[in-house]
Design goal:
The protein is an alpha/beta fold. It is built from 11 helices and 8 strands.
Length: 259
């Protein structure tokens, strides 16, 4: 039995996707109504999901009902991106949600991630390049990571959320060079059923608003975006996807994927 199947067996029986939606909505409320001094301490602000984004999430929900899966890929700016993103993903009412997590973060917060497993939110542990000195060991762990992703996306009614940059931008708001993991995900989707959905966090410092705007782009199938997908390298696929993400962000946030 795979780790994913085991974690599903351990999931709290009463926690339906409707219950999870209620819990993540409560978390969203707390994030958006936290005391001002706490918002300043954690360096975050109120979040607003645009009306167009809600419509695009509904498209994803309709496709999930038909048995599809979806990959949401977003920029990464703050610690609160994770819980806020979980709320956004829950709006599409998936049966399961999952996300890659760096090993160093997983190890520091292992009990927290074990709790999330109970909520049907899975963590795929990613080994950072510097974690192992042996290249063969790193290659084997990366292969297992991709295999776990393939097992997960081999099901249905599931969402995978990922931050391709792999780390928060601590210097500004522009997109950084992405890691190539997302460029391998299509290998687990031979039938091309999986939707890809760009999602952007746009802080008030950029827009002049008093809140962070969450933008969810129009869902698409990878083969529609890249007709010659089978001839593209993971690096090329990653770059194409990041440029799609850049399109829903303001010019000053497009970074290395700008025009």
């Amino acid at each position: 039995m795979s780790r994913i199947e085991q974690s599903q067996d351990k999931r709290t029986p009463w926690l339906t996707k409707e219950t999870r939606l209620l819990l993540t909505s409560a978390a969203w409320f707390l994030v958006n109504h936290a005391p001002h001094f706490l918002q300043e301490k954690l360096h975050y602000e109120k979040h607003v999901l645009t009306e167009e984004s809600r419509k695009n999430i509904e498209i994803v929900a309709q496709e999930l009902d038909k048995g599809a899966n979806a990959v949401f890929f977003a920029n990464h700016l703050r610690y609160t991106d994770g819980p806020v993103g979980l709320y956004v993903l829950s709006q599409a009412k998936p049966d399961e949600v999952a996300a890659p997590v760096a090993k160093k973060h997983y190890d520091k917060n292992v009990n927290f991630f074990k709790i999330l497993e109970r909520f049907g939110a899975h963590a795929f542990v990613v080994v950072n390049p510097g974690d192992d000195a042996n290249a063969a060991v790193k290659a084997e762990k990366f292969k297992k990571y991709i295999t776990d992703i393939a097992t997960y996306l081999g099901g249905s009614h599931r969402i995978l959320g990922t931050y391709p940059e792999a780390t928060r931008n601590k210097q500004g708001y522009g997109l950084q060079q992405a890691q190539n993991g997302i460029g391998y995900f299509h290998l687990s989707d031979p039938d091309g059923k999986c939707l890809y959905v760009p999602m952007g966090y746009v802080p008030g410092e950029v827009t002049g608003q008093k809140y962070t705007e969450i933008r969810v782009g129009v869902p698409f199938h990878l083969k529609d975006l890249i007709p010659d997908l089978e001839f593209k390298t993971p690096e090329e696929i990653t770059t194409i996807l990041m440029k799609e993400l850049a399109k829903i962000l303001p010019d000053k946030m497009r970074g290395v994927y700008g025009p």
